[in-house]
Amino acid sequence: MSKQNINELYDFIVIGSGFGGSVSAMRLAQKGYSVAILEAGKRWRNNDFPKSNWDLRRYFWMPLLRCFGPQAVTLLKGVMVLRGFGVGGGSLIYANTLMKPARDVFNDPRWPKGHEWDKELSPFFDEARRMLGVVPNEKLFAAEHALHAVGKRLGVENTFHPTEVGVFFGEPDKEVDDPYFFGNGPKRVGCNHCGGCMVGCRYRAKNTLDYNYLYFAEKWGAVIFPETAATRILPRAVNGGTTWYEVETSKPTSWFGYKNTFKARNVIIAAGVLGSVELLLKNRDVYRTLTGISSKLGFFVRTNGESLLGSTSFDRKKNYSEGIAIGAAIHPDPETKIEAVRYPNGSGAMRLLSVPLTPDGSRFTRPLKLILRMLIKLPRMLRLCFVRDWARSTVILLVMQSVDRQMRLKLGGWFGFWPGIRGFATDRPIPSFLPVAQRAAVILACEMGGEPQNVISEVLLGTPATAHILGGCVIGDGRESGVIDTKHEVFGHKGLYVCDGSVIPCNLGVNPSLTISTLAERFATQFPLRAGFSEEEYKNRLTFLAN
Fold first, then answer.
1. Of 32, 127, 452, 539, which one has the greatest count of Cβ atoms within 10 A?
2. CA-to-CA distance for 469 and 472, rounded, in angstroms?
3. Cβ count within 10 A of residue 215
């Protein structure tokens, strides 16, 4: 990190390098703007990822315990959130799944009026799919066959389909020149179906953001500052109007912080739902540097209607870890989608978050039912504990629903100290028990010859878990309905934008990464070429991506 780069007045500072931040940064750099990307997590090369998620210090993000891996697990009041850290954000450890929501999602009245959202976003979906290399999953393995059997038992076998994913399905383990951008991108290696997508792809087969959007953003001058977390945003005014912003930062991977200050004419906040909401809440309510932000900040937070369940097989001959992270899906009803998820051999750390499948109940009775169930089925519970390779023997079910349930995020802390983000339920609380999900898990266990499981937060705390939290800085018609306008600008703060999953105003019912990328593609089109940047050079840069 050079002092010259820190002290430069950038055209844009992008806070966060996930799908919203990476897309925005590349498109702005492509138009000649100077861009700084601030990322709290570390920079990961393919060989840096842990071989197993039991390598806790390299896999989990827990700075207080000196763990700086790409996977964070955050427990809030009302929800447990899995999210990514590092240059590339959630793309480093997400399940590659890139699917467009149903048309009805964009007809939801919570989207701002005056736009035909499905029609308006359609070309941006196409561009995001091309940039991320979206293709149908090519191979089905044991986990997909088990899910197919679940669909058959539920009477929805006809809905079974391979997922659309961002994976390079070339010849396994063979390195080739860039297959996506006419040789202008980085070299890639064909997927060997090791199942390691969510631990971090060590083979350069997964289309993470550092192989597309971030790669070209840097090629065109954007500067990435890893291990740099934004803490305060200060508008600086000349003659009564905001002309630029200062962004104060700290280094989360150091005990001492190493604070720096960056300056830019515009700031794009793209730190994910928890990161973006907390940053704005602190600057509005604690530091009071961004007063006047909508009172709806932190409201309308959704979990994509998710529940996490699964089954562990007692058949040692079966290997459920072969394939890509999510290879297929079924649709038990129009509002529900179920995907089969896997981890690679030896990566069973997530078993620490699992408990035996437990019937519904209150926050007090459901844990008691768990204890009773474990006592009644003690021999099977002991057998489950001694499954040698949990990942090899387990299929996780990711259940998503487009049913509207929501919560709110706000600041809290111990006795007023160390304020941080926390959640609480609204009058339409997010359920921790989905009957269709429970039925699917029971059927899956029967098919696998194993034992069904819930995620621990759902049973012990009555708290749903999600890897796809949405909302909190939602797009709206005005302050009374949202935090940002249809151009992603924060109401009342010129030059301050939000562009990540926090802007989405409703449940999508599918993995949200493609939708976030699409909204970022649309967002970036509002900016013209930078003054003095030639049209010819811009066209030359376009040919790098599509001859």
1. 452
2. 9
3. 18
Written as six digits, the tokens of 389 are 């390779």
| Three-state SS at 180 | coil
Judge contact between 495 and 11, C-beta under 8 A. Answer: no
Q: What is the 3-state secondary structure (H, E, C) of 511-541?
A: CCHHHHHHHHHHHHCCCCCCCCCCHHHHHHH
d(Cα 174, Cα 23) in Å, to the nearest integer? 28
Burial degree of 412 (CB within 10 A; 0-12, 13-18, 19+): middle
Using CA atoms, how far residue 319 sits from 139, 345, 395, 488, 495, in Å, is 15, 8, 10, 46, 52
How far is Cα of residue 214 from the mean position of the Cα atoms in its chain? 16
pLDDT per 10-residue tile (average), the chain, 547 residues: 64 98 98 98 96 96 95 93 97 97 94 96 98 98 98 98 98 97 96 97 98 98 98 86 90 88 97 97 96 96 93 95 98 96 96 95 93 94 94 97 90 65 75 94 97 95 93 97 98 97 96 98 98 95 87
Cβ burial, residue 495 (10 Å; 0-12/13-18/19+): middle
Q: Where are the alpha helices (DSSP H) in 350-469?
A: 365-376, 378-385, 390-393, 435-448, 456-460
User: What does DSSP assign to residue 462?
Assistant: S
Asked if residues 333 and 143 have their Cβ atoms less than 8 Å apart, the reply is no
Number of Cβ atoms within 10 Å of the Cβ of 380: 15
Helix-strand-coil percent breakdown of the chain, rounded to 5?
A: 30, 25, 45
Alpha carbons 447 and 144: distance in angstroms, whole number: 12
Annotated catalytic residue within 148, 193, 468, 493: 468
The per-residue pLDDT for 405 is 85
Q: How far apart are CA 93 and CA 509, in angstroms?
A: 20
